[in-house]
Amino acid sequence: SAAEKGGYASFMLKEIAEQPKAVADTLLGRIDTAGRLTLDEVRIPAAVLREADKVVVIACGTAFHAGLIAKYAIEHWTRIPCEVELASEFRYRDPILDRRTLVIAISQSGETMDTLMALRHAREQGAKVLAICNTNGSTIPRESDAVLYTHAGPEVAVASTKAFLTQLVACYLLALYLGQVRGTKWGDEIHAVVRELARIGDEVDRVLETMEPVRALARSLAHKDTVLFLGRHVGYPVALEGALKLKELAYMHAEGFAAGELKHGPIALIEDDLPVVVVVPSPRGRSVLHDKIVSNIQEIRARGARTIVIAEEGDESVAPYADHLIRVPATPTLLQPLVATVPLQVFACELATARGNEVDQPRNLAKSVTVE
Ligand code: AGP
Protein backbone atom coordinates (compact mmCIF):
# COMPACT_ATOMS: atom_id res chain seq x y z
CA SER A 1 0.00 0.00 0.00
CA ALA A 2 0.97 3.67 -0.34
CA ALA A 3 1.39 3.93 3.44
CA GLU A 4 3.88 1.05 3.50
CA LYS A 5 5.89 2.87 0.86
CA GLY A 6 6.08 5.92 3.14
CA GLY A 7 4.93 8.28 0.41
CA TYR A 8 7.42 6.97 -2.16
CA ALA A 9 6.24 5.67 -5.54
CA SER A 10 7.97 2.35 -4.94
CA PHE A 11 9.66 0.33 -2.21
CA MET A 12 12.85 0.65 -4.19
CA LEU A 13 12.80 4.47 -4.01
CA LYS A 14 12.01 4.25 -0.29
CA GLU A 15 14.85 1.82 0.29
CA ILE A 16 17.31 3.94 -1.72
CA ALA A 17 16.35 6.91 0.49
CA GLU A 18 16.79 4.82 3.65
CA GLN A 19 20.44 4.10 2.89
CA PRO A 20 22.03 6.78 5.10
CA LYS A 21 20.18 5.36 8.10
CA ALA A 22 20.82 1.73 7.11
CA VAL A 23 24.53 2.43 6.89
CA ALA A 24 24.56 4.25 10.24
CA ASP A 25 22.55 1.44 11.89
CA THR A 26 25.01 -1.16 10.64
CA LEU A 27 27.90 0.78 12.18
CA LEU A 28 26.10 1.42 15.45
CA GLY A 29 27.91 0.04 18.49
CA ARG A 30 30.60 -1.63 16.41
CA ILE A 31 33.36 0.99 16.65
CA ASP A 32 34.31 2.32 20.10
CA THR A 33 35.37 5.88 20.91
CA ALA A 34 39.02 4.90 20.50
CA GLY A 35 38.30 3.78 16.94
CA ARG A 36 38.62 0.05 17.76
CA LEU A 37 36.27 -2.55 16.33
CA THR A 38 33.95 -4.26 18.82
CA LEU A 39 32.40 -7.11 16.89
CA ASP A 40 31.38 -9.33 19.81
CA GLU A 41 29.01 -11.28 17.59
CA VAL A 42 31.92 -12.68 15.60
CA ARG A 43 32.04 -15.71 17.89
CA ILE A 44 34.92 -17.39 16.12
CA PRO A 45 37.84 -17.55 18.60
CA ALA A 46 40.58 -14.98 17.98
CA ALA A 47 43.10 -17.83 17.80
CA VAL A 48 41.23 -19.31 14.83
CA LEU A 49 41.05 -15.92 13.11
CA ARG A 50 44.76 -15.39 13.70
CA GLU A 51 45.61 -18.74 12.15
CA ALA A 52 43.39 -18.40 9.09
CA ASP A 53 45.54 -18.53 5.99
CA LYS A 54 42.83 -17.92 3.42
CA VAL A 55 39.49 -16.15 3.20
CA VAL A 56 36.88 -17.32 0.70
CA VAL A 57 33.79 -15.21 0.07
CA ILE A 58 30.72 -16.94 -1.40
CA ALA A 59 27.56 -15.16 -2.52
CA CYS A 60 25.21 -14.59 -5.44
CA GLY A 61 24.15 -11.58 -7.47
CA THR A 62 24.45 -8.26 -5.72
CA ALA A 63 25.87 -9.91 -2.59
CA PHE A 64 28.62 -11.37 -4.81
CA HIS A 65 29.48 -7.83 -5.90
CA ALA A 66 29.80 -6.85 -2.24
CA GLY A 67 32.16 -9.82 -1.90
CA LEU A 68 34.29 -8.64 -4.82
CA ILE A 69 34.73 -5.30 -3.07
CA ALA A 70 35.43 -7.04 0.24
CA LYS A 71 38.40 -8.80 -1.34
CA TYR A 72 40.18 -5.48 -1.89
CA ALA A 73 39.60 -4.44 1.72
CA ILE A 74 40.48 -7.81 3.27
CA GLU A 75 43.69 -8.27 1.33
CA HIS A 76 44.75 -4.67 1.78
CA TRP A 77 44.13 -4.43 5.52
CA THR A 78 44.93 -7.98 6.61
CA ARG A 79 47.30 -9.36 3.94
CA ILE A 80 45.35 -12.65 4.03
CA PRO A 81 44.73 -14.01 0.52
CA CYS A 82 41.05 -13.74 -0.33
CA GLU A 83 39.07 -15.43 -3.08
CA VAL A 84 35.55 -14.53 -4.08
CA GLU A 85 33.35 -17.05 -5.81
CA LEU A 86 29.81 -17.30 -7.05
CA ALA A 87 28.11 -19.66 -4.62
CA SER A 88 26.54 -21.57 -7.51
CA GLU A 89 29.99 -22.44 -8.89
CA PHE A 90 31.81 -23.03 -5.64
CA ARG A 91 31.24 -26.61 -4.56
CA TYR A 92 31.17 -28.05 -8.05
CA ARG A 93 34.85 -27.39 -8.66
CA ASP A 94 36.01 -29.24 -5.55
CA PRO A 95 37.49 -26.15 -3.85
CA ILE A 96 40.51 -26.43 -1.56
CA LEU A 97 39.36 -25.75 1.99
CA ASP A 98 40.49 -26.78 5.45
CA ARG A 99 40.31 -25.67 9.07
CA ARG A 100 42.49 -22.67 8.34
CA THR A 101 40.03 -21.34 5.76
CA LEU A 102 37.62 -18.62 6.82
CA VAL A 103 34.55 -18.61 4.60
CA ILE A 104 32.33 -15.52 4.47
CA ALA A 105 28.82 -16.14 3.16
CA ILE A 106 27.02 -12.93 2.20
CA SER A 107 23.23 -13.00 1.81
CA GLN A 108 20.50 -10.45 2.31
CA SER A 109 17.74 -13.02 2.72
CA GLY A 110 19.75 -15.74 4.43
CA GLU A 111 17.73 -18.26 2.39
CA THR A 112 19.55 -18.38 -0.96
CA MET A 113 19.93 -22.07 -1.75
CA ASP A 114 23.14 -21.73 -3.79
CA THR A 115 24.84 -19.92 -0.91
CA LEU A 116 23.48 -22.35 1.66
CA MET A 117 24.74 -25.39 -0.25
CA ALA A 118 28.15 -23.76 -0.69
CA LEU A 119 28.44 -23.01 3.02
CA ARG A 120 27.43 -26.57 3.94
CA HIS A 121 30.14 -27.85 1.64
CA ALA A 122 32.69 -25.51 3.27
CA ARG A 123 31.79 -26.65 6.77
CA GLU A 124 32.03 -30.29 5.75
CA GLN A 125 35.63 -29.59 4.79
CA GLY A 126 36.32 -28.13 8.24
CA ALA A 127 36.27 -24.44 7.28
CA LYS A 128 34.79 -21.89 9.66
CA VAL A 129 31.87 -19.96 8.17
CA LEU A 130 30.88 -16.44 9.05
CA ALA A 131 27.62 -15.13 7.59
CA ILE A 132 26.93 -11.51 6.69
CA CYS A 133 23.16 -11.43 6.61
CA ASN A 134 20.22 -9.03 6.83
CA THR A 135 17.53 -11.43 8.04
CA ASN A 136 17.56 -12.41 11.69
CA GLY A 137 17.34 -16.11 12.38
CA SER A 138 17.31 -17.15 8.72
CA THR A 139 18.87 -20.42 7.56
CA ILE A 140 22.31 -19.19 6.46
CA PRO A 141 23.18 -17.56 9.82
CA ARG A 142 21.70 -20.53 11.69
CA GLU A 143 24.01 -22.89 9.84
CA SER A 144 27.10 -20.68 10.19
CA ASP A 145 29.68 -20.56 12.99
CA ALA A 146 29.01 -16.85 13.48
CA VAL A 147 27.00 -14.03 11.97
CA LEU A 148 27.51 -10.34 11.48
CA TYR A 149 24.07 -8.91 10.84
CA THR A 150 23.53 -5.99 8.53
CA HIS A 151 20.92 -3.64 9.94
CA ALA A 152 19.31 -2.45 6.73
CA GLY A 153 15.82 -3.27 7.96
CA PRO A 154 13.41 -5.25 5.76
CA GLU A 155 14.17 -4.91 2.06
CA VAL A 156 11.01 -5.42 0.02
CA ALA A 157 12.01 -4.40 -3.51
CA VAL A 158 13.49 -7.34 -5.40
CA ALA A 159 16.47 -5.27 -6.54
CA SER A 160 18.85 -4.91 -3.64
CA THR A 161 19.92 -1.38 -2.65
CA LYS A 162 20.20 -0.68 1.07
CA ALA A 163 21.13 -4.29 1.79
CA PHE A 164 24.07 -3.95 -0.60
CA LEU A 165 25.39 -0.79 1.05
CA THR A 166 25.14 -2.38 4.48
CA GLN A 167 26.86 -5.54 3.21
CA LEU A 168 29.74 -3.32 2.16
CA VAL A 169 29.83 -1.70 5.60
CA ALA A 170 29.82 -5.13 7.26
CA CYS A 171 32.64 -6.30 4.98
CA TYR A 172 34.74 -3.23 5.81
CA LEU A 173 34.11 -3.72 9.52
CA LEU A 174 35.03 -7.37 9.29
CA ALA A 175 38.20 -6.65 7.31
CA LEU A 176 39.26 -4.04 9.87
CA TYR A 177 38.40 -6.42 12.70
CA LEU A 178 40.47 -9.21 11.17
CA GLY A 179 43.33 -6.75 10.89
CA GLN A 180 42.87 -5.73 14.52
CA VAL A 181 42.77 -9.35 15.79
CA ARG A 182 45.80 -10.28 13.74
CA GLY A 183 47.76 -7.25 14.91
CA THR A 184 47.92 -5.26 11.69
CA LYS A 185 49.80 -2.04 12.35
CA TRP A 186 46.96 0.36 13.14
CA GLY A 187 48.33 3.12 10.94
CA ASP A 188 47.05 6.52 9.90
CA GLU A 189 45.28 5.03 6.92
CA ILE A 190 43.10 2.76 9.04
CA HIS A 191 42.33 5.58 11.49
CA ALA A 192 41.25 7.73 8.54
CA VAL A 193 39.00 4.95 7.26
CA VAL A 194 37.36 4.44 10.65
CA ARG A 195 36.74 8.20 10.90
CA GLU A 196 35.36 8.27 7.38
CA LEU A 197 32.99 5.36 8.05
CA ALA A 198 31.45 7.40 10.86
CA ARG A 199 30.67 10.15 8.32
CA ILE A 200 29.62 7.98 5.41
CA GLY A 201 25.86 8.06 6.12
CA ASP A 202 25.91 11.86 5.74
CA GLU A 203 27.82 11.53 2.51
CA VAL A 204 25.33 9.06 1.08
CA ASP A 205 22.68 11.61 2.06
CA ARG A 206 24.51 14.32 0.11
CA VAL A 207 24.63 12.08 -2.94
CA LEU A 208 20.89 11.50 -2.68
CA GLU A 209 20.27 15.25 -2.62
CA THR A 210 21.97 15.73 -5.99
CA MET A 211 20.20 13.02 -8.01
CA GLU A 212 17.84 15.13 -10.15
CA PRO A 213 20.27 15.40 -13.12
CA VAL A 214 20.84 11.63 -12.93
CA ARG A 215 17.09 11.04 -13.16
CA ALA A 216 16.81 13.40 -16.14
CA LEU A 217 19.69 11.63 -17.85
CA ALA A 218 18.09 8.22 -17.21
CA ARG A 219 14.81 9.37 -18.79
CA SER A 220 16.68 10.66 -21.84
CA LEU A 221 18.23 7.22 -22.37
CA ALA A 222 15.02 5.21 -22.03
CA HIS A 223 15.00 4.33 -25.75
CA LYS A 224 18.55 2.91 -25.77
CA ASP A 225 19.31 -0.81 -26.17
CA THR A 226 22.64 -1.03 -24.40
CA VAL A 227 24.54 0.70 -21.62
CA LEU A 228 28.11 -0.21 -20.68
CA PHE A 229 29.77 0.34 -17.29
CA LEU A 230 33.49 0.62 -16.66
CA GLY A 231 35.54 0.76 -13.50
CA ARG A 232 38.87 -0.23 -12.03
CA HIS A 233 39.89 -1.51 -8.61
CA VAL A 234 36.81 -1.31 -6.35
CA GLY A 235 35.11 0.65 -9.15
CA TYR A 236 35.02 -2.54 -11.22
CA PRO A 237 32.50 -4.37 -8.98
CA VAL A 238 30.57 -1.09 -8.79
CA ALA A 239 30.37 -1.20 -12.60
CA LEU A 240 29.14 -4.82 -12.45
CA GLU A 241 26.49 -3.82 -9.92
CA GLY A 242 25.38 -0.85 -12.04
CA ALA A 243 24.96 -3.20 -15.00
CA LEU A 244 23.08 -5.81 -12.96
CA LYS A 245 20.64 -3.19 -11.70
CA LEU A 246 19.92 -2.06 -15.24
CA LYS A 247 19.33 -5.64 -16.44
CA GLU A 248 17.07 -6.47 -13.53
CA LEU A 249 14.98 -3.31 -13.65
CA ALA A 250 15.13 -1.83 -17.14
CA TYR A 251 15.48 -5.19 -19.00
CA MET A 252 18.26 -3.62 -21.03
CA HIS A 253 21.47 -5.11 -22.23
CA ALA A 254 24.03 -3.84 -19.77
CA GLU A 255 27.55 -5.01 -19.11
CA GLY A 256 30.24 -4.06 -16.67
CA PHE A 257 33.91 -4.26 -17.60
CA ALA A 258 37.22 -3.67 -15.92
CA ALA A 259 38.37 -0.55 -17.74
CA GLY A 260 41.83 -2.04 -18.29
CA GLU A 261 40.21 -4.85 -20.30
CA LEU A 262 38.71 -2.44 -22.84
CA LYS A 263 41.59 -2.74 -25.26
CA HIS A 264 41.44 -6.55 -24.98
CA GLY A 265 38.04 -6.72 -26.62
CA PRO A 266 35.13 -4.64 -25.33
CA ILE A 267 36.30 -1.45 -27.05
CA ALA A 268 35.02 -3.03 -30.28
CA LEU A 269 31.51 -2.47 -28.91
CA ILE A 270 31.90 1.30 -28.75
CA GLU A 271 29.84 3.09 -31.36
CA ASP A 272 28.28 6.44 -31.91
CA ASP A 273 26.20 7.68 -28.96
CA LEU A 274 26.55 4.45 -26.94
CA PRO A 275 26.10 5.41 -23.28
CA VAL A 276 29.11 4.34 -21.21
CA VAL A 277 29.16 4.93 -17.46
CA VAL A 278 32.66 5.23 -16.02
CA VAL A 279 33.41 5.05 -12.30
CA VAL A 280 36.55 7.11 -11.73
CA PRO A 281 38.76 6.39 -8.71
CA SER A 282 40.02 9.22 -6.56
CA PRO A 283 42.94 11.19 -8.01
CA ARG A 284 44.46 11.02 -4.53
CA GLY A 285 45.66 7.62 -3.33
CA ARG A 286 45.93 5.37 -6.36
CA SER A 287 46.53 8.18 -8.82
CA VAL A 288 48.06 5.84 -11.42
CA LEU A 289 44.68 4.16 -11.83
CA HIS A 290 42.98 7.51 -12.01
CA ASP A 291 45.16 8.64 -14.88
CA LYS A 292 44.68 5.36 -16.72
CA ILE A 293 40.92 5.59 -16.50
CA VAL A 294 40.98 9.19 -17.74
CA SER A 295 42.79 7.97 -20.84
CA ASN A 296 40.18 5.17 -21.19
CA ILE A 297 37.48 7.85 -21.16
CA GLN A 298 39.32 9.77 -23.86
CA GLU A 299 39.65 6.60 -25.96
CA ILE A 300 35.98 5.69 -25.86
CA ARG A 301 34.88 9.26 -26.40
CA ALA A 302 37.09 9.53 -29.48
CA ARG A 303 35.13 6.51 -30.80
CA GLY A 304 31.80 8.22 -30.27
CA ALA A 305 30.71 6.97 -26.83
CA ARG A 306 28.45 9.18 -24.76
CA THR A 307 30.47 9.33 -21.51
CA ILE A 308 28.68 9.40 -18.19
CA VAL A 309 31.39 9.95 -15.61
CA ILE A 310 31.10 9.40 -11.88
CA ALA A 311 33.97 11.27 -10.26
CA GLU A 312 34.88 12.68 -6.91
CA GLU A 313 34.15 16.33 -6.10
CA GLY A 314 37.07 18.53 -7.05
CA ASP A 315 38.45 16.13 -9.67
CA GLU A 316 38.61 18.60 -12.59
CA SER A 317 40.72 16.42 -14.88
CA VAL A 318 37.71 14.40 -16.10
CA ALA A 319 35.47 17.36 -16.93
CA PRO A 320 36.67 17.91 -20.53
CA TYR A 321 35.83 14.29 -21.47
CA ALA A 322 32.55 13.88 -19.65
CA ASP A 323 29.32 14.34 -21.58
CA HIS A 324 27.58 13.96 -18.22
CA LEU A 325 29.38 14.39 -14.93
CA ILE A 326 28.03 12.91 -11.71
CA ARG A 327 29.82 14.08 -8.58
CA VAL A 328 30.30 12.00 -5.43
CA PRO A 329 32.00 13.08 -2.19
CA ALA A 330 35.69 12.34 -1.78
CA THR A 331 36.27 9.21 0.31
CA PRO A 332 39.24 6.92 0.95
CA THR A 333 39.68 4.76 -2.18
CA LEU A 334 38.33 1.54 -0.67
CA LEU A 335 35.14 3.21 0.56
CA GLN A 336 34.19 4.84 -2.74
CA PRO A 337 31.64 2.10 -3.63
CA LEU A 338 29.45 3.33 -0.76
CA VAL A 339 28.89 6.62 -2.56
CA ALA A 340 29.47 5.63 -6.21
CA THR A 341 26.80 2.89 -6.24
CA VAL A 342 23.98 5.24 -5.25
CA PRO A 343 23.72 7.17 -8.56
CA LEU A 344 23.66 3.83 -10.40
CA GLN A 345 20.70 2.64 -8.32
CA VAL A 346 18.82 5.87 -9.01
CA PHE A 347 19.76 5.68 -12.69
CA ALA A 348 18.42 2.11 -13.08
CA CYS A 349 15.26 2.82 -11.11
CA GLU A 350 14.39 5.93 -13.11
CA LEU A 351 15.24 4.34 -16.44
CA ALA A 352 13.05 1.33 -15.63
CA THR A 353 10.17 3.61 -14.65
CA ALA A 354 10.58 5.61 -17.87
CA ARG A 355 10.30 2.32 -19.81
CA GLY A 356 7.06 1.55 -18.00
CA ASN A 357 8.46 -1.27 -15.87
CA GLU A 358 7.33 -2.23 -12.41
CA VAL A 359 10.48 -1.59 -10.35
CA ASP A 360 9.60 -3.46 -7.16
CA GLN A 361 8.69 -6.71 -8.92
CA PRO A 362 10.83 -7.12 -12.04
CA ARG A 363 9.68 -9.85 -14.39
CA ASN A 364 11.05 -13.38 -13.83
CA LEU A 365 12.79 -12.51 -10.54
CA ALA A 366 12.13 -13.48 -6.93
CA LYS A 367 13.42 -11.70 -3.86
CA SER A 368 14.90 -14.82 -2.46
CA VAL A 369 15.98 -17.72 -4.65
CA THR A 370 15.35 -20.86 -2.62
CA VAL A 371 16.11 -23.37 -5.34
CA GLU A 372 19.52 -24.26 -6.71
C1 AGP B 1 19.80 -8.12 -6.22
O1 AGP B 1 19.32 -6.97 -6.81
C2 AGP B 1 19.14 -9.40 -6.64
N1 AGP B 1 17.83 -9.47 -6.13
C3 AGP B 1 19.98 -10.66 -6.46
O2 AGP B 1 21.13 -10.53 -7.28
C4 AGP B 1 20.42 -11.04 -5.05
O3 AGP B 1 21.43 -10.18 -4.60
C5 AGP B 1 20.89 -12.50 -5.02
O4 AGP B 1 19.85 -13.34 -5.45
C6 AGP B 1 21.37 -12.94 -3.65
O5 AGP B 1 20.35 -12.84 -2.70
P1 AGP B 1 20.67 -12.91 -1.16
O6 AGP B 1 21.52 -11.74 -0.82
O7 AGP B 1 19.34 -12.87 -0.47
O8 AGP B 1 21.42 -14.20 -0.92
UniProtKB/TrEMBL annotation:
| Key word Transport present | no
Q: What class of enzyme is it?
A: transferase
Which superkingdom, per the lineage? Answer: Bacteria
What are its E.C. numbers? 2.6.1.16
The segment(s) forming the SIS domain are 45-184, 217-362
The reactions it catalyses are: D-fructose 6-phosphate + L-glutamine = D-glucosamine 6-phosphate + L-glutamate
> Where does this protein reside within or beyond the cell?
Cytoplasm
**UniProt keyword annotations, A-Z:** Aminotransferase, Cytoplasm, Glutamine amidotransferase, Repeat, Transferase
List the active-site residues. Answer: K367 (for fru-6p isomerization activity)
Q: How does it assemble?
A: Homodimer.
> What does this chain do?
Catalyzes the first step in hexosamine metabolism, converting fructose-6P into glucosamine-6P using glutamine as a nitrogen source.
- This one is known as Glutamine--fructose-6-phosphate aminotransferase [isomerizing]
Q: Which organism is it from?
A: Streptomyces gulbargensis
What stretch of the parent protein is included here? Answer: 244 to 615 of 615
